[in-house]
Specification:
The complex is a heterodimer. By secondary structure, chain A is mainly beta. Chain A is built from 4 helices and 35 strands. In chain A, strand 31 and strand 32 (about 555-565) form a beta hairpin. The radius of gyration of chain A is 26 Å and the shape is globular. The chains are: A mainly beta, B alpha/beta. Chains A and B meet through helix 2, strand 1, strand 2, strand 3 and strand 17 of A and helix 1, helix 3, helix 4, helix 5 and strand 7 of B.
């Protein structure tokens, strides 16, 4: 067993013992009340499949497990740690950084009063909407980019919050070879000036710096940069939130300092490209209006060269599909759907700067787009509302590649020390990458029967998004109907039918789910997605991507088991994705908190 | 053999964690949350003001969560008048979807309280891996936790708050 783990365990046991000796009888209860333990284990047994081929990796049984313990030492102090186990191997397609089998992933000690909040150890943090800095954990993605260091949040008054932090970023079980500094101030103007007319008026400003040495001697050949690599990359951000009656607006701007760009032609090597440094920026603006029964919200966002990593080597996206060591949060702003067929043509945000082709330069420098949501509740007792009302949600979204023009004075059609540079237009939506319109209708028919209908119409620029260059669109629509019928004694049955129609790419798919709950604790389901139509894309043709499984829930414990075949593609959580390979197997998920 | 060693580690980890099965967190984690108008609050503050509350972690993209909230919204008036319970729906939506929260709750006509946990601080403190996750808090102490939603769970929840009220 790992020495570090033992140390931490002993530390906690000694805290427990210490208080036991001093306070006797009630101590056991006191510890019990103050401790929170959560355990999660996701394991999969990968099987060979006559339809999709053998599982060729050596380790067939894999598991990623997490044990997290938090303890409230006193009213002001709390502490905790997380042990992670990737024994014998992490789940397939997980980040390669989790090479160590078992160890302490994160630990912290926190001191908190009304005005002061100090954390030592690992911490999670977000500045503004996360475009400049966000650290978080997502176990399904295998992502944890917590910072390890110190974070101090100070609220001198109820309208001012100051955050200062320093840390190194988590890198597997290790930390990054760089230093991150951050500062944010949040000023609640409406509160400070006692503005009665505005519900909210807030200003935030932030700074994030990354300091990373560059050893010029270590680089050779094509790796040798043609210019001075900056050791410190500075980013600045500002946001303004306004709310007046039923209207709101949030505006945020980020400037990311100049940094060298790595080329992505030779993925296994860190080599630098142009003889120029490039800066980046982001603009996002949300506006909306809502009153009871009606809501509308719009989000505009433009990202240019906004990928920000704590180690520059990781900015080579081909080598880093799992977004390890990313410091900011750049999710796709399309609507997230829960249905399988709605997740085939997924748009992934395009925030980075890449030169896709050098021969006749094709530059991807970022994205620009818009997403609009409308919510409407048709009242009870009207023609379309019926007895229980009808809930509608309409979403429209459109994304384009930033329009850029390049200049290449030397004319060298290659990337080493080239003087290739580019310029973009601020508001140009011409290079379409993705658009979607979807409508969701929720309807309660009787106290026992409910339905959800979803219609999605999408346009996906597969040519540009998945390969180099030429536009080629997949135009598809997806229809989904699901109904849940509640029976006596907590029993219920849910049926969901899906169809994806397109004349492009792999053509039509059909799918469905049948789920039955024997009581509120135990349920079984069967689902399937089937690409039934012949096309040139034969990868998934006439293969049943099925899942058969069940779950048992009691209180805060849940056990799920699944046997099935997964389609290869992107697994996305919260707009951040990692690629997954096609696989077949048995999955066991176990979660509990106590 | 390697596998044997690894298995030992797993067993050790499991036995170690099972020791804690006897335990159960009752004290509220001291975590900062945001209201819809952007001001900071904590669960502790809320629990001081309200004797009996239900806290449910949800997200705009989570279908079972919305099912739970829709189901509760239908009967919420009765719950409040009969038990005085207050329901707090804490959205774990991150900045990608957090802007959908306000139009959605109004559009849906939900009348309970909404709070934001934009970087999942409360979710982590509760040790939650999937939403919905529902907690009942009485006199500042956690008395019940539940993960997931199945149709009819709202009835079970109602029975529990009635029992706690008496």
């Amino acid at each position: 067993m790992n020495k570090n783990i033992l140390t931490v365990v002993i530390f906690f046991i000694s805290i427990a013992n210490y208080s036991q000796e001093t306070q006797k009888t009630s101590t056991f209860n006191k510890i019990k009340d103050r401790i929170n333990v959560s355990l999660e284990s996701n394991s999969q047994w990968y099987l060979n499949d006559s339809e999709t081929g053998d599982f060729e990796e050596e380790e067939k049984l894999r598991a990623s497990s997490y044990l997290r313990i938090d303890y409230q030492i006193s009213n002001r102090f709390s502490s905790g740690f997380q042990i992670e186990s990737y024994v014998p191997e992490p789940l397939f397609n997980y980040s390669k950084l989790f090479d160590k089998k078992i160890g302490i992933g994160t630990f912290y000690l926190n001191y908190k009063t009304e005005k002061l909040d100090i954390t030592l150890g690992h911490f999670y943090v977000q500045f503004g909407s996360g475009l400049i800095l966000r650290t978080w954990e997502d176990r399904a993605l295998g992502l944890n980019n917590a910072l390890r260091g110190a974070k101090i949040i100070y609220d001198p008054t109820n309208y001012l919050r100051l955050t200062t932090l320093y840390g190194k970023q988590r890198k597997g079980f290790d930390v990054s070879n760089s230093n991150i500094f951050g500062f944010e101030t949040q000023f609640d103007i409406a509160n400070a000036l006692q503005l009665e007319t505005l519900n909210s008026f807030q200003l935030g400003m932030s700074y994030v710096g990354k300091q990373e040495e560059f050893k010029k001697e270590a680089a050779t050949g094509v790796s040798q940069p043609a210019l001075e690599i900056p050791e410190l990359v500075n980013s600045f951000g500002a946001y303004l939130n306004l709310e007046y009656k039923s209207l709101y607006s949030n505006f945020e701007y980020i400037y990311k300092g100049e940094d060298a760009r790595l080329n992505n032609i030779t993925p296994n090597q860190v080599s630098f490209s142009e003889a120029a440094l490039f800066d980046g920026n982001a603009i996002t603006w949300n506006i909306g209006y809502s009153r009871k029964g009606f809501g509308i919200g719009s989000t505009f966002r433009r990202l240019e060269n906004m990928r920000f990593y704590s180690e520059r080597n990781f900015s080579n996206v081909i080598n880093n599909p799992t977004s390890d060591l990313s410091m900011n949060y750049l999710p796709a702003l399309t609507k997230q759907h829960d249905y399988t067929l709605a997740n085939i043509y997924l748009y992934q945000a395009q925030p980075g700067l890449t030169v896709v082709s050098y021969e006749s330069p094709l530059i991807k420098s970022g994205e620009i787009g818009e997403s609009l949501d409308v919510y409407y509740n048709i009242k009870k007792g009207t023609l379309f509302g019926g007895k229980y009302g009808t809930k509608l949600n309409l979403n429209w979204t459109y994304w384009a590649n930033l329009k850029s023009t390049y200049t290449d004075p030397s004319g060298i059609p290659y990337f080493v020390g080239d003087d290739l540079t580019y310029e973009t237009e601020l508001l140009n939506f011409d290079n379409k990458l993705y658009s979607e319109i979807n409508v969701e209708m929720r309807k309660k028919w009787t106290p026992k029967l409910k339905s959800i209908f979803t219609y999605i119409n999408l346009n996906y620029n597969k040519g540009f998004l998945e390969s180099k260059g030429a536009n080629s669109f997949v135009k598809a629509w997806i229809g989904i109907a699901e109904s849940t019928y509640k029976l006596k004694g907590g029993k219920s049955v849910r049926l969901e039918l899906q169809h994806l129609s397109t004349n492009d790419d792999a053509k039509n798919w059909a799918g469905g789910t049948l789920e039955y709950f024997f009581n509120s604790k135990f349920g079984l389901y069967l689902n399937d997605s089937y690409n039934y139509e012949e096309s040139k894309i034969t990868e998934n043709t006439k293969i049943h991507f099925f899942n058969l499984g069940g779950s048992f829930t009691k209180g805060s414990t849940r056990v799920g088991i699944n046997y099935g075949r997964q389609r290869g593609g992107l697994l996305c959580v919260g707009g951040v994705c990692r690629p997954v390979s096609k696989n077949t197997g048995v999955t066991l998920n176990f979660v509990t908190t106590f | 053999m390697n596998i044997e060693n690894n298995m030992k580690k797993i067993v050790y980890l499991l036995v170690f964690s099972l020791n804690f099965m006897l335990f159960g967190q009752r004290q509220l984690p001291n975590i900062s949350l945001k209201t819809l108008s952007g001001t900071n609050t904590t669960l502790t503050e809320i629990a001081e003001k309200n004797e009996l509350i239900i806290v449910s972690l949800w997200a705009t993209w989570c279908v079972p969560c919305k099912n739970e909230l829709d189901a509760v919204a239908d009967v919420y008036d009765d719950w409040v008048s009969e038990t005085g319970v207050k329901y707090f729906a804490v959205s774990i939506d991150d900045s990608r979807t957090a802007k959908r929260v306000k139009p959605m709750i109004n559009g849906k006509g939900w009348e309970f309280e909404i709070l934001l946990d934009e970087n999942s601080d409360l979710k982590r403190a509760f040790g939650v891996s999937t939403v919905p996750y529902t907690v009942i808090i009485k006199s500042g102490e956690i008395v019940y936790k539940h993960t997931g939603y199945t149709p009819g769970f709202e009835d079970e929840l109602y029975n529990r708050i009635v029992a706690l009220k008496n």
